[in-house]
């Protein structure tokens, strides 16, 4: 729905997991001041014709048979002002945690991927330098577990974490029109890491107490030496 305010450029993502027919419609708001606009549909920079038209809406029908039909489709309305709306046809995105996963040695790390549509296949990778290595739980059952909780949700578990497990992991969902992936960053900390601030505070307290104690001993010795000198002067 286009309001018709000058400079408006609406964006909408459309997930397409498998070959299908898609209908895209731009409808001008009834209260818009933009009257009888000239309408152009484009795929990227290529002009295409719309297949149907009413008084305030313009529609194109697409047959998405392979990945070459994915991309950006825009309707441009020109009159006293120019407004536009763009539909981004793409394979479904993978939902997952964006922030780094921070845990400790010996713990369990869990990564979960979810998609809007069920993919044909899931795959997990770990980064080894600049290369990706496929994670195969059957070859190391004591380290990795992959669980398909449902058709559109996949879960990776990394057991008995060590510092060497820190790094970047990827999950990939394969659809008939292409694949989508998600990046995870794992940071494994030493079990001593949470104690470091506490140890630092304790060390500062010990240093402070030791300094005060030494100062008191020094002051007491100076006082005793002063009393001895006073007694000697009195005797003299």
Automatic annotation (TrEMBL):
Record domain Ig-like: where: 17-86, 92-190
Entry keyword annotation includes Transferase: no
One Pfam family linked to the record: Ig_3
Recorded superkingdom: Eukaryota
Keyword Transport: no
InterPro entries, per the entry: CD47_Vset, Ig-like_dom, Ig-like_dom_sf, Ig-like_fold, Ig_sub, Neural/epithelial_adhesion
Gene Ontology, cellular component aspect: neuron projection
Transmembrane segments: 198-218
Keyword entries, A-Z: Disulfide bond, Immunoglobulin domain, Membrane, Repeat, Transmembrane, Transmembrane helix
UniProt xrefs under PANTHER family: CTX-RELATED TYPE I TRANSMEMBRANE PROTEIN, DPR-INTERACTING PROTEIN ETA, ISOFORM B-RELATED
Name under which the protein is recorded: EMB protein
Lineage: Eukaryota, Metazoa, Chordata, Craniata, Vertebrata
Gene: Emb
